[in-house]
Amino acid sequence: MIDARNKDDRIHRDISLDNIILVREPGNPIRRGYLIDWEVSCKVDADGRACDVAERQVLFHCGQCANHLTCLQGTWRYMSYNVLDKEDVVHSLSDDMESLLYVVLYCSLRWLPHDEDEKSLGAHLHALFDYSEFLVGRLLGGNGKYLFLSTRRYLEHITFAHPPIKEWLDTVAEYRCVRDSFNVSAIPQKVVHPKHLDAFWAEFLASHTLEAKDRIERVLPASSSLSYSNSSVRSTSSVVSSDTQDIQKVPANVMVP
Prior knowledge:
- With 257 residues, the chain is α+β, with helices and mostly antiparallel strands.
- It has one domain: Orthogonal Bundle (Transferase(Phosphotransferase), domain 1), CATH 1.10.510.
- The protein is 31% helix and 14% strand.
- The protein has 7 helices and 11 strands.
- The strands form 5 sheets. It has a 3-stranded antiparallel beta sheet with strand order 6-5-11, with no helix packed on it. The chain has a two-stranded antiparallel sheet with strand order 1-4.
- α3 runs antiparallel to α6 (164-176).
- It is globular.
């Protein structure tokens, strides 16, 4: 992310679980992460905001009319709060950094050992990452992320078997939005440039011993409603979740050119 910003003034715009690979390099005990799938990336201006705005649109058909919805670049589950909540938002580097937080948060809740039962966890994951609704001709989401950023809901009550991951999540969430601050749309300086997160992450890995082979396979209840789940909104076919449990079809009244 830093290399793309410094060397090519570019942001990714689709940071997701499917677009990150971990590589074990010779002589390095810690695997290095790489971002892949840069097809929706774009150049940014001096403020880190995307220079181009997608012209593609999602069409929502209601009866005899067709309302146009602004196309969102990225993967619904990991999109930033501002991208999900604001109409005609211009994607920025800070949105990519927030998406990275959600990738780690999702993986931690979904697969690391902690004390929340599967039924509650399934409901909370859906509310935080997958919930969406059509309202006034727009596809909306982000309510769960607003609650997470402002109050740390869905995380504060959970006790992980290995405390360092909670420390990481709390710290990076605080970078994005100070707890009990309800101005969630404001972007703090610490997420304007990835150097702050990079410095913290390097120090964290150097000072903490993380558990290995502690993944837990959980069977979560199926969601009772359709959502965009882990699909890229630019996708044209079915919605396939990263944990390969469910394959959900995009609702018949939604078309993505």
